[in-house]
Amino acid sequence: MPKAATRPVVLTGDRTTGSLHLGHYVGSLKSRLVLQEDHRQFLLLADAQALTDNGDDPARIRRNVIEVALDYLAVGIDPEKSVICVQSCLPALAELTMLYMNFVTVSRLERNPTVKQEIVQRGFQRDIPAGFLCYPVSQAADITAFKAGLVPVGEDQLPMIEQSNEIARRINRHVGRELLPEAGALVSCVGRLPGIDGRSKMSKSAGNAIPLSATPAEISAAVQAMFTDPGHLRVSDPGRVEGNVVFTYLDAFDGSPDLADLKAHYRRGGLGDTVLKKRLDACLQALLAPIRERRAAFAKQPDFVMDVVRAGTARAAVLTQQTLDEVRAALGLFSFGGG
Amino acid sequence: MPKAATRPVVLTGDRTTGSLHLGHYVGSLKSRLVLQEDHRQFLLLADAQALTDNGDDPARIRRNVIEVALDYLAVGIDPEKSVICVQSCLPALAELTMLYMNFVTVSRLERNPTVKQEIVQRGFQRDIPAGFLCYPVSQAADITAFKAGLVPVGEDQLPMIEQSNEIARRINRHVGRELLPEAGALVSCVGRLPGIDGRSKMSKSAGNAIPLSATPAEISAAVQAMFTDPGHLRVSDPGRVEGNVVFTYLDAFDGSPDLADLKAHYRRGGLGDTVLKKRLDACLQALLAPIRERRAAFAKQPDFVMDVVRAGTARAAVLTQQTLDEVRAALGLFSFGGG
Questions:
Q1: Which chain B residues are closer than 8 Å to A128 by Cβ?
Q2: Whether the predicted pLDDT of B339 surpasses 50
Q3: Which of A41, A149, A292, B17 falls between 20 and 30 A from B293, CA-CA?
Q4: Which reaction does it catalyse (chains A, B) (predicted)?
Q5: B203-221: average pLDDT
């Protein structure tokens, strides 16, 4: 593929902490299906990064490498178009991280807003694992190793791209040329999908997520349990649309032109939650049925899935090793070739 | 060599910040000559660690990889008995470091007395490179990757061994068996050799060192410039032995039984610095002449030296990769082999 070299490189991926859910679908998977058509897209199964805050449960992280790969294939990621690879099987990433760690100060890492926020979320306080503090450096290694021009992120992850570009600039300044490209952030315009309980974020651990592999009954149960408007007691009562998870999901997954009318009707009163939920249920069943079926089909071919991930990791290994070699040579590290 | 496997493993080495001097000879090289006779000794040319506080000058670090290897060969390190290898050419060390960083907290690293002291010495204050803060983790990776049972250290480096053993214990506890041996510290009983100016430490950067490659004229000039007793103005004056660098060096390098008499004579008065310095000069010339000659001879065979280092690094690569594979498997990381 001679044209491949000129297509912009996108790096994205997921921590392998659990299988993916509807939040991932809306937030990232959907756009990856578009991106893979005219970009060189690398999907990193970020098991090493997942270990920085799950050091006590590596078995879960390992198991989910293949689960997430299955999710990718299930939603339509095409291994001919996107490269699926395992982070911890790419030694060049660890080596680049170690080199970059000499170009970032501890206080700079401590000031990273994303890290700061996540330290609070995870309740680490003073017991932050060193790997967690340094994970922005590891991300910079990922981004630059693939020479990614574009990294899809949520708004809260922007400081990570900034940190990566800062390191790239420091290295470039140090070696006197544009060795490492800076990455642009592709900020998702889709807001985060709330959990079915209306809490801020859909997450498996909070038990408020609809996994991509959910059965029809699980989907229906989740929709039934969904948070609407606690003040909307009778059908005839006026209802609130804002903060009503069913409407948020309809916005995200239905998107029909008559949604505006539906919202107006709900606000006026006279539209019951049951009607709404039926509509959402049908919509989610239609979305997830083919994904679930493809997932089940791929799950029956573990050798094929393993081969996809193996081949992707081998391609990524060549590319990342090449970048490492370039960085080592440019910084003037020892080599047996050049002495 | 079936016996090799039962010989205790020693890991030692040097940051490749400059070629070695008499301080290294007394402090470590001499004992390595003994250790290599009945240990499996690995000498790590620690260029990656040197970069943690010399990130701005990688060219110097690179150059000195071969300079230090030359010093090793010059003093009599036998590549048939000791393995000389380059740290930055062993990817397993970077990968182990990354894994271990999840088992050490930032505050634990900040409490490390050696790191604390070195932060002050290097004037880093708040601008500590992340790589520098984490270098005890990198040392733990070195020590455990070679499964070293014995690590020769100065007393000020004891916290490093402690940190390494702490990580080994955490990993062992985590995996439920003695995967990584704890290392014993072989504390040098020789005090640090002062610089010729009487300052605490001989170092190339302080300009108070006698390099192993010093010419006869350089040795003599260094001995001439050596700090003695500033109060010892006339030969007949009583002189101080304590803090008198010439005596410190005679203790370290001469060691004849009549040194005690010489000291007594100096203390009484009547013994001139010139006599002392002549004696030390002769002693150092005799010590350094064969080292300098062997060094010059090896320097004329750069291919041989490169081959020694290449072969040593290849051996070390096999060993360290094996440990990495064991750690990954024991922690349950993803692998294409076992799934």
A1: 105-107
A2: no
A3: B17
A4: tRNA(Trp) + L-tryptophan + ATP = L-tryptophyl-tRNA(Trp) + AMP + diphosphate + H(+)
A5: 92
How far does A78 lie from chain B, in Å, by closest CA?
Answer: 20
Dig out the tokens for B288 from the structure.
């350094």
Provide the pLDDT for residue B3. Answer: 58
Could you tell me the residue ranges of all domains in chain B? 2-193+301-331, 216-296
| Pairwise CB contact (< 8 Å): B336 & A138 | no
d(CA B128, CA B107): 14
N-terminal to C-terminal alpha carbon distance within chain B: 35
Q: Do A105 and B97 touch (CB under 8 A)?
A: no
Same fold for the pair B2-193+301-331 and B216-296 = no
**Residues of B whose CB is below 8 A from A339:** 66, 302, 306
Please state, in angstroms and as integers, the Cα–Cα distance from residue A252 to each residue in A259, A271, A284, following that order: 11, 20, 10
Length of chain B: 339
Give the pLDDT of residue B2.
41
User: Which of A93-110 are b and which e, b meaning 16 or more Cβ less than 10 Å from the residue's Cβ?
Assistant: bbbbbbbbbbbbbbebbe
For every residue of A219-284, DSSP letters joined together read HHHHHHT----TT--STTS----TT-HHHHHHHHHT--TTHHHHHHHHHHS---HHHHHHHHHHHH
- Which regions of chain B does DSSP assign to beta strands (E)? 9-15, 40-46, 82-86, 150-153, 184-187
Note which residues in 27-56 of chain B have CB less than 8 A from chain A: 45, 47-48, 51-52, 55-56
Residue range A318-329, pLDDT digits in tens: 999 999 999 999
Q: Which CATH fold would you assign to the domain B2-193+301-331? A: Rossmann fold (3.40.50)
What is the complex's ipTM, to 2 decimals? 0.91
Exposed/middle/buried for residue A29 (C-beta within 10 Å: 0-12, 13-18, 19+): buried
- How many whole angstroms separate alpha carbon B145 and alpha carbon B335? 19
- Cβ atoms of B43 and B13 within 8 Å: the answer is yes
Mean pLDDT of B11-33: 94
B305 touches chain A (CB under 8 A): no
What are the strands, taking DSSP E only, across B220-290? none
CATH node for B216-296: 1.10.240.10
Residue A338: exposure state from Cβ atoms within 10 A (0-12, 13-18, ≥19): exposed
Flag whether residue B191 sits within 8 Å of chain A, measured between CB atoms: no
| Residues pairing with B46 in the sheet | B15
Class of domain A2-193+302-331: alpha beta
Q: Let me know if B132 is exposed, middle or buried by CB neighbors in 10 A (0-12, 13-18, 19+).
A: buried
The pLDDT value given to residue A200: 74
Q: Which of A93, A95, A182 lies closest to A142 in space, CA to CA? A: A93
* Exposure on the CB side of residue A101, measured as CA atoms within 13 A: 29
Which stretches of chain A score pLDDT less than 70? 1-5, 126, 338-339
Residue A135: count other Cβ atoms within 10 Å of its Cβ.
27
In the numeric block, which tokens belong to residue B189?
A: 């009983």
Q: Distance from A162 to chain B by nearest Cα, in Å?
A: 17
Q: Is pLDDT of B84 > 60?
A: yes
**CB-based burial label for B286 (10 Å; 0-12, 13-18, 19+):** exposed
How far apart (Å, rounded) are the C-alpha atoms in residues A87 and B146? Answer: 24
Strand partners, B15: B46
**Interface residue of B102, B115, B173, B305 to substitute, partner A, most A CBs within 10 Å:** B102
Contact B101 A313 (CB under 8 A): no
CA distance B11 to chain A (A): 21
**What pLDDT, on the 0 to 100 scale, is given for residue B103?**
93
